[in-house]
Amino acid sequence: MCIFCKIINKEIPAQTIYEDADTLAIADVNSQAPLHWLVIPKVHVENLTQAAPEQILACTRTIQHLTREKGVAEYRAVVNTGAAAGQTVPHLHFHILAGRALGWPPG
Ligand code: AMP
Ligand code: ZN
Predict the structure, then answer these.
(1) pLDDT tens across 64-78, in order?
(2) Domain parsing of the chain, residue ranges
(3) Which pLDDT value is given to residue 107?
(4) Residue identifier of the C-alpha nearest atom 12 of ligand 1
(5) Per the CATH hierarchy, to which homologous superfamily does domain 3-9+20-98 belong?
(6) How high is the pLDDT of residue 49?
Protein backbone atom coordinates (compact mmCIF):
# COMPACT_ATOMS: atom_id res chain seq x y z
CA MET A 1 0.00 0.00 0.00
CA CYS A 2 1.40 3.45 -0.85
CA ILE A 3 2.24 6.02 1.81
CA PHE A 4 -0.72 8.27 1.00
CA CYS A 5 -3.11 5.31 1.19
CA LYS A 6 -1.65 4.58 4.64
CA ILE A 7 -2.28 8.21 5.65
CA ILE A 8 -5.84 8.02 4.29
CA ASN A 9 -6.34 4.80 6.29
CA LYS A 10 -4.91 6.52 9.41
CA GLU A 11 -2.08 4.00 9.61
CA ILE A 12 0.45 6.85 9.39
CA PRO A 13 -0.20 10.21 11.08
CA ALA A 14 -0.41 13.45 9.12
CA GLN A 15 -1.52 16.99 9.81
CA THR A 16 -4.99 16.98 8.31
CA ILE A 17 -6.16 20.31 6.91
CA TYR A 18 -9.46 19.10 5.48
CA GLU A 19 -11.24 15.85 4.77
CA ASP A 20 -14.41 14.84 2.96
CA ALA A 21 -15.75 11.63 1.44
CA ASP A 22 -13.54 11.82 -1.63
CA THR A 23 -10.45 13.83 -0.70
CA LEU A 24 -7.93 14.48 2.04
CA ALA A 25 -5.80 17.61 2.40
CA ILE A 26 -2.67 17.42 4.56
CA ALA A 27 0.30 19.62 5.33
CA ASP A 28 3.38 18.62 3.34
CA VAL A 29 5.96 17.16 5.73
CA ASN A 30 8.78 18.85 3.76
CA SER A 31 7.17 22.25 3.25
CA GLN A 32 8.47 24.31 0.33
CA ALA A 33 6.54 27.48 1.22
CA PRO A 34 4.87 29.03 4.30
CA LEU A 35 1.72 27.27 3.11
CA HIS A 36 2.19 23.86 1.46
CA TRP A 37 -0.77 21.52 1.35
CA LEU A 38 -1.29 18.28 -0.51
CA VAL A 39 -4.80 17.54 -1.82
CA ILE A 40 -5.20 13.82 -2.37
CA PRO A 41 -8.05 11.70 -3.77
CA LYS A 42 -8.97 8.94 -1.31
CA VAL A 43 -9.16 6.22 -3.95
CA HIS A 44 -5.67 5.26 -5.05
CA VAL A 45 -4.70 6.35 -8.55
CA GLU A 46 -1.12 6.79 -9.63
CA ASN A 47 -1.20 10.05 -11.50
CA LEU A 48 -3.20 12.73 -13.30
CA THR A 49 -3.12 10.82 -16.58
CA GLN A 50 -4.77 7.77 -15.05
CA ALA A 51 -7.24 9.61 -12.79
CA ALA A 52 -10.96 9.51 -13.38
CA PRO A 53 -12.51 12.91 -14.17
CA GLU A 54 -14.54 12.63 -10.95
CA GLN A 55 -11.34 12.31 -8.90
CA ILE A 56 -9.85 15.40 -10.53
CA LEU A 57 -13.08 17.31 -9.97
CA ALA A 58 -13.19 16.27 -6.31
CA CYS A 59 -9.63 17.52 -5.81
CA THR A 60 -10.20 20.85 -7.55
CA ARG A 61 -13.42 21.33 -5.59
CA THR A 62 -11.49 20.79 -2.36
CA ILE A 63 -8.82 23.25 -3.53
CA GLN A 64 -11.50 25.89 -4.20
CA HIS A 65 -13.24 25.21 -0.88
CA LEU A 66 -10.04 25.31 1.16
CA THR A 67 -8.50 28.38 -0.46
CA ARG A 68 -11.77 30.29 -0.12
CA GLU A 69 -12.26 29.18 3.47
CA LYS A 70 -8.70 30.07 4.46
CA GLY A 71 -8.65 33.31 2.44
CA VAL A 72 -5.80 32.19 0.22
CA ALA A 73 -6.29 34.30 -2.92
CA GLU A 74 -2.90 33.72 -4.54
CA TYR A 75 -1.38 30.29 -4.73
CA ARG A 76 0.20 27.76 -7.02
CA ALA A 77 -1.36 24.35 -7.71
CA VAL A 78 1.11 21.80 -9.05
CA VAL A 79 0.78 18.18 -10.08
CA ASN A 80 4.06 16.39 -10.76
CA THR A 81 3.51 13.46 -13.11
CA GLY A 82 6.32 10.96 -13.47
CA ALA A 83 9.82 10.83 -12.03
CA ALA A 84 11.25 13.28 -14.55
CA ALA A 85 8.68 15.84 -13.42
CA GLY A 86 9.57 15.29 -9.76
CA GLN A 87 6.85 12.83 -8.71
CA THR A 88 8.10 10.78 -5.76
CA VAL A 89 4.83 9.44 -4.34
CA PRO A 90 2.90 7.29 -6.83
CA HIS A 91 -0.55 8.46 -5.68
CA LEU A 92 -2.08 11.53 -7.35
CA HIS A 93 -1.74 14.71 -5.31
CA PHE A 94 -2.08 18.42 -5.96
CA HIS A 95 0.52 20.60 -4.27
CA ILE A 96 -0.89 23.94 -3.07
CA LEU A 97 1.84 26.47 -2.37
CA ALA A 98 1.42 30.01 -1.06
CA GLY A 99 2.76 32.60 1.34
CA ARG A 100 5.82 33.68 -0.59
CA ALA A 101 6.69 34.90 -4.09
CA LEU A 102 6.82 31.86 -6.33
CA GLY A 103 9.29 32.06 -9.18
CA TRP A 104 8.50 31.14 -12.76
CA PRO A 105 9.55 29.02 -14.56
CA PRO A 106 9.70 26.44 -11.75
CA GLY A 107 12.89 24.41 -11.37
P1 AMP B 1 5.88 14.63 -5.30
O2 AMP B 1 7.40 14.70 -5.24
O3 AMP B 1 5.25 15.60 -6.24
O4 AMP B 1 5.43 13.19 -5.53
O5 AMP B 1 5.36 15.08 -3.88
C6 AMP B 1 5.34 14.22 -2.79
C7 AMP B 1 5.25 15.10 -1.58
O8 AMP B 1 4.82 14.33 -0.49
C9 AMP B 1 6.58 15.74 -1.17
O10 AMP B 1 6.44 17.16 -1.17
C11 AMP B 1 6.82 15.19 0.22
O12 AMP B 1 7.40 16.14 1.08
C13 AMP B 1 5.43 14.81 0.66
N14 AMP B 1 5.35 13.74 1.64
C15 AMP B 1 5.99 12.55 1.62
N16 AMP B 1 5.65 11.81 2.68
C17 AMP B 1 4.79 12.57 3.41
C18 AMP B 1 4.10 12.38 4.64
N19 AMP B 1 4.22 11.24 5.35
N20 AMP B 1 3.30 13.37 5.11
C21 AMP B 1 3.17 14.51 4.40
N22 AMP B 1 3.79 14.76 3.24
C23 AMP B 1 4.60 13.80 2.75
ZN1 ZN C 1 -2.18 5.24 -2.67
Answers:
(1) 999 999 999 999 999
(2) 3-9+20-98
(3) 82
(4) 30
(5) HIT-like (3.30.428.10)
(6) 98
Per DSSP, helices labelled H in 1-107 are: 3-8, 53-70
The answer to whether the CB of 3 is under 6 A from ligand 1 is yes
* Residue 36 among the catalytic residues: no
Sheet holding 16-19, edge to edge: 16-19, 23-27, 35-41, 94-98, 76-78
Q: Measuring from atom 15 of ligand 1, which residue has the nearest CA?
A: 29
- Measured in residues, the chain has a length of 107
Q: Is the dihedral of CA 50, 56, 57, 58 positive or negative?
A: positive
Mutating to test ligand 1, I would choose from 16, 29, 44 the residue with most ligand atoms within 8 A of its C-beta, which is 29
